[in-house]
Amino acid sequence: MDQLIGVGLYTPAEAGSLLRIPVLKISRWLKGHSTKKKSYDPLWTPEIDLGDDRLFLGFRDLMEVRVADAFISAGVSAMKVRKAISVARDTIGFDYPLSSARFRTDGREIFLQIIEVDEKGEERERLLNLFRKQYEFKSVIDPILKTMEFGEDGTPVLWWPEGRKAKIVVDPSRAFGQPIDAVSSVPTAILAAAAKQEGVRGTAIAYDVPLSSVHRAVSFERSLEQRMAA
Questions:
Q1: Rounded distance, CA 14 to CA 208, Å?
Q2: DSSP state for residue 177 in the 8-state scheme
Q3: Confidence at 199, pLDDT banded by 50, 70, 90
Q4: What are the CA-CA distances from residue 181 to residues 21, 154, 175, 205, 218 (Å)?
Q5: What is d(CA 56, CA 42) in angstroms, rounded to the nearest whole number?
Q6: pTM recorded for the entire structure
Q7: Where does the pLDDT of residue 3 fall: very low under 50, low under 70, confident under 90, or very high at 90 and above?
Q8: How far apart are CA 152 and CA 79, in angstroms?
Q9: Is 171 strand, coil or helix?
Q10: Residue 60: which of 73, 45, 71 has the closest Cα?
Q11: Are strands 39-40 and 33-34 parallel, antiparallel or unpaired?
Q12: Please, which residues bridge with residue 33 across strands?
């Protein structure tokens, strides 16, 4: 497990719950899929390989999926996103370019480069119009990146899934990337599970954390359970 330190580890179900993206979509994007007429390669190769056929995501995969989903939801096909990732890797120099800080400035040009002409050499004006103006591109990418913190090299190092004010953070260097209470650094799942047995006050005493930390953890974990049950 040493290779997972600082990387994060998520099942598709955990990723789907955190990202609010259907598990089937995540699996199709990262494992590829086939129809009767055609096979589709994965959008990229996940950063975690445990030597079997099971799919796991690392923290960078988690952040990359968020951006890919935003573009696909905005009307860009998965095929175009795949091409954009390939171009962005060469342009930006990161294996996981969509979630890098630099992509915020270079991404529009990258997408225009790959969607200006389709497979037949014809312009795809509808997609071209999507990113014709800078603010249209930023309206897709800015809400994603503003909940992330970046290292000096521009790669994401922290994610605030509910925004910074919620004080729940995902940090791949702590608790294998599981959500933690930012004040106490205790995983939210642990605090929430303890609260079911000991109550909020008992948990706060047992873990020497503020009552507010336990309340936050319980609320956050409850929201994850609701998403997984939906």
A1: 27
A2: G
A3: very high
A4: 23, 24, 11, 16, 10
A5: 14
A6: 0.88
A7: low
A8: 31
A9: coil
A10: 45
A11: antiparallel
A12: 40
